[in-house]
């Protein structure tokens, strides 16, 4: 068993009247206890109650096994550039072709592998009995109106009142262009898209809940600016839904967070203001609401060289001047925070614009740190898949209360050539087993559990069956 407090003093075992127990007595007491436990479980098993528990546990393990299946990918790199499109060869004549080059090459023969066309789209409203509830990472995913879901860099809120999930993200259904030669590919701000669902698979478009400003060029959300990674949490004290997002200018020099608020999960959200949190530049960000209702802002800062974390005020609309610097010098972005059994976990990406890179998992006993880096959580696919987070970038981790210890890893497969056609990579994430790089030990036991994200070409939540539809 894992012990949490590494500074905990060892307790002295005493028998009655303060006499110290001898070692054999201790061992025999332990053996006795184990025998009693075994006997108890046998009796429980016999009278049926234990049987139920056992069946439940077997069922639970079975469900987990399904999520943790390791699936390999065998993608053949096409012949060298010379034998292919002269245009592509001219663009990058000397570089050897890697899978990442292929991914970024608009004219790659592997395009359909990374960005399958609409023929293979996930269409929840079609009568596809055999495909119901199946996620196909990278395929076009349609909403209930038959339109591709536009919720990039998103986050998911479970709303207790309506008992629905709400998925918020960047609505990027516009042309991709560069503001100038050296600028990153961009789409003008359209707004924050919102989708609702009861089953996490069938998503109804609820509209654009925070829209771009069309005319006022001085407005933070003027269409020529940047609105990324919106996240929404609910404030029990005020009854308001609060959205935090990255707001920026086209050159990413404003580096601020924006705040908006609404009475309803489906908006409309009123935009309040933007600021540099704690006076620092802030780009990729997320918010995390803890079990005690305290919410935190986590953002990349100091030119993405480190992350900062600090609590929000009780109304979630601003923050006090409390902040900790974490993962200093590690150059991480795209933070996605979650918690399991009292430990905080975070997945981050490296900083390579829209190009994919290796994810890392981090863990901490307190959200304010000290955070430790555990290594790459990706399992399966192939080496390049694992080195590129399955050609995607983290944005959110959603807990699955039905299966404690399991989560959905929500990521974006960006398509820099046509950002509106960026795809979603949803995969099972589980916490358990010893970490690869357990930097911290407690009495010889690694302090952290492994975070694992399993590649699947096709998967579904094991408790979702067709009859649930
Ligand atoms: C990487 C970030 O994670 C994205 O949200 C976006 O800001 C791109 N960079 C822009 O290049």
From TrEMBL:
Pfam families xref list: Glyco_hydro_43
Ordered alphabetically, the record's keywords are: Glycosidase, Hydrolase, Membrane, Transmembrane, Transmembrane helix
What residue range is the signal peptide?
A: none
Gene Ontology MF: a single term:
hydrolase activity, hydrolyzing O-glycosyl compounds
Extract the InterPro entries matched here. Answer: Glyco_hydro_43, Glyco_hydro_beta-prop_sf
Q: Its Gene Ontology biological processes?
A: carbohydrate metabolic process
Compositional bias, Basic residues, is annotated for: 81-95
| Region Disordered, annotated ranges | 70-98
Membrane spanning stretches = 21-40
State whether keyword Transmembrane applies. Answer: yes
Q: Which PROSITE patterns match?
A: PROKAR_LIPOPROTEIN
Residues annotated as coiled-coil are: none
Family of the protein in this entry: Belongs to the glycosyl hydrolase 43 family.
User: Per its record, how is this protein called by name?
Assistant: Arabinanase/levansucrase/invertase
């Amino acid at each position: 068993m894992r012990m949490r407090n590494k500074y905990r003093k060892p307790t002295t075992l005493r028998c009655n009247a303060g006499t110290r127990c001898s070692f054999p007595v201790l061992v025999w007491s332990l053996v006795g206890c184990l025998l009693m436990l075994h006997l108890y479980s046998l009796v429980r098993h016999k009278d049926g109650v234990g049987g139920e528990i056992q069946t439940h546990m077997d069922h639970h393990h079975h469900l987990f096994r399904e999520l943790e299946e390791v699936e390999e990918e065998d993608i053949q790199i096409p012949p060298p550039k010379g034998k292919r499109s002269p245009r592509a060869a001219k663009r990058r004549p000397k570089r050897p072709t890697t899978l990442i080059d292929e991914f970024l090459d608009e004219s790659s023969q592997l395009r359909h592998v990374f960005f399958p066309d609409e023929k293979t789209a996930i269409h929840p409203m079609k009568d596809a009995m055999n495909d119901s509830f199946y996620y196909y990472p990278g395929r076009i995913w349609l909403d209930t109106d038959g339109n591709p879901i536009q919720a990039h860099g998103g986050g998911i809120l479970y709303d207790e009142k309506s008992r629905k999930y709400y998925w918020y993200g960047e609505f990027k259904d516009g042309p991709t262009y560069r503001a100038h030669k050296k600028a990153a590919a961009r789409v003008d701000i359209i707004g924050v898209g919102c989708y609702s669902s009861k089953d996490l698979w069938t998503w109804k478009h609820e509209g654009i809940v925070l829209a771009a400003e069309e005319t006022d060029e001085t407005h933070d959300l003027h269409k020529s600016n940047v609105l990324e990674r919106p996240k929404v949490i609910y404030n029990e004290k005020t009854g308001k839904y609060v959205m935090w997002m990255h707001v920026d200018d086209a050159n990413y020099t404003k580096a601020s967070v924006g705040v908006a608020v609404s009475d309803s999960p489906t908006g409309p959200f009123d935009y309040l203001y933007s600021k540099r949190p704690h006076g620092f530049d802030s780009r990729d960000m997320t918010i995390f609401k803890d079990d005690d209702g305290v919410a935190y802002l986590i953002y990349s800062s100091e030119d993405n060289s480190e992350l900062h974390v600090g609590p929000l005020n009780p109304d979630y609309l601003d923050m006090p001047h409390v902040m900790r610097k974490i993962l200093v010098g590690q150059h991480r972005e795209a933070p996605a925070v979650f918690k399991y059994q009292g430990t905080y976990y975070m997945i981050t990406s490296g900083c390579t614009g829209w190009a994919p890179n290796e994810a890392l998992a981090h863990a901490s006993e307190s959200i304010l740190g000290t955070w430790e880096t555990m290594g790459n959580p990706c399992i399966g696919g192939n080496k390049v898949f694992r080195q590129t987070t399955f050609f995607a970038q983290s944005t959110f981790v959603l807990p699955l209360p039905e299966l404690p210890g399991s989560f959905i890893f929500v990521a974006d497969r960006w398509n820099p050539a046509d950002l509106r056609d960026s795809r979603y990579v949803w995969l099972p994430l589980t916490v358990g087993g010893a970490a690869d790089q357990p930097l911290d030990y407690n009495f010889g036991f690694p302090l952290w559990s492994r975070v694992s994200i399993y590649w699947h070409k096709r998967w579904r939540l094991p408790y979702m069956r067709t009859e649930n539809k």
